[in-house]
Amino acid sequence: MKTDQALIELSRASSKVAALxxxxxxxxxxxxxxxxxxxxxxxxxxxxxxxxxxxxxxxxRPHWRHANHDNDVDGYLxxxxxxxxxxxxxxxxxxxxxxxxxxxxxxxxxxxxxxxREAMGAA
Length: 123
Known about the structure:
Strand content: 5-15%
Number of domains: 1
Number of strands: 2
Shape: elongated
Low-confidence stretches: none
Helix content: over 70%
Oligomer: single chain
Number of helices: 4
Strand order of the largest sheet: 1-2
Structural class: mainly alpha
Mean pLDDT: 86
């Protein structure tokens, strides 16, 4: 019965991570489309999506640095793009879902290793 439960938990966790990944992709696509529809460029969207800004160093070479959002990522994204804010929230949710998935995988591995040892002992 523990084996069945562990496999069910693994399946559910895996499905949740996959669903969140698809939702993140869709939100990022909507963000990109919204930013470029109004004359924005891919670079503009990258700055928003990754919360960075393009700056030049003292020799005039461009590079990226984190945008100043005063640790209020939701507020920063809400001011700039609701789709990017949704993606950010989904990413945070997926981080937690991946932890659950990792626990489920380890649990299944422990059960599989135990069953393998028992099978070797019986042979």
